[in-house]
Amino acid sequence: MFDARKLRDDFPILRRQIHGKPLVYLDSTATSQKPQVVIDALTDYYSRSNANVHRGIHTLSEEATALYEGARAAVARFIGAPNPHTIIFTRNTTESINAVRHAWGNRHIKAGDEIVLTEMEHHSNLVPWQMLAKEKGAVLRFIPVTENGELALDELPKLLNEKTKLISLTHMSNVLGTINPVKAVIQEAHSRGIPVLVDGAQSVPHLPINVMDLNCDFLAFSAHKMLGPTGIGILYAKEALLEEMDPFLGGGDMIRDVWLDHSIWNDLPWKFEAGTPNIADAIAFGKAIEYLEKLGMPAIQQHEQTLTRYALSKLQAIDGLIIHGPKEAEKRGGVVSFEIPGLHPHDLGQLLDEQGIAIRAGHHCCKPLLRKMSLIATARASFYIYNIEEEVDALVDALRKAKEVFSVVSRR
Ligand code: C6P
User: Which side of the chain, N or C, has fewer Cβ within a 10 Å radius?
Assistant: First the structure.
């Protein structure tokens, strides 16, 4: 049974006080907190099994290899990947997308080709494609975002033509919370033979995802947003794509054989994992996945939707407060961006911090989207498995207080 109140005990950081107040952590979209099992997995690994992987025949190396590859199998199971060797360990979502840019993009993108993105992309799913387009003389096109913070999908067919070589889009906006209909986009793209990369940084931690059902060609996400450690990310890709792609980093472990003048690549997935990998964090990520699996992703989604609905209704009741993104809770994940006109989001963030409440204030690495919305920054509260209604109440009280403080200051 999913019980947010009970599982909070598994997260030692939630016992912290900030400025003498209990921590209210509403910034899981930036990075999630970690349960004790994940923290323990790191110390256990370094205390008991630390050795390099795929190299030694001694017991510790074999143990480390089994744990590392076990984590890969857990990731594959979690996203319904057909085979663990379609899972590549990277550093984060950003590196996964950059890997596709280099390893796939170098071979497939030529002058005049087109890549379709959306206006709501995180810089991680925009800048790499800008770099590739500049290098190759390719063109970027964008699915527009509507007033309601959704993708204008009726524009998609008009953006696609025989020059379109890739669509790359976020599954969930880290600013607006919008859950995009990626399955419909993938179907439309595939009917024209166009592969699709899904940026799952915000969806894989929060929604049940099955790559076979979604039928995406690439999926990128980060462990640190789903209870795992920083420094470990995932690139999933269809096997045929991975097989034909060249490695983007050369070095140890990614080769089968080496001569002075050439090399032969290793099998999947190691062909894409040059050098000593991030063994400890991958293993701890495996524990995070087991933790999420025990709770069940449908229950997690349900909890976050209930909390988001509650937050939207409470925030809407604050005089003057503007909420960005879809009006309908069912179109959103647990991310709520808002502003109080006249009160800069950074000031708001600081005033909330004084109350022990952690939110994010800024452009959220989505400058083009904010520019389109005529904003420089927003305040953003985001929810995860351990957040409860009382924390939304604390946010709402603190926002009312911040409004009061600000009106006092501005009257002086
Ligand atoms: N968004 C946020 O506070 P990395 O940093 O590589 O783990 O994830 C990048 C990334 C890519 N796509 C989306 C949709 C994201 O939300 C993020 C990370 C964080 O919104 C940090 S800027």
Answer: C
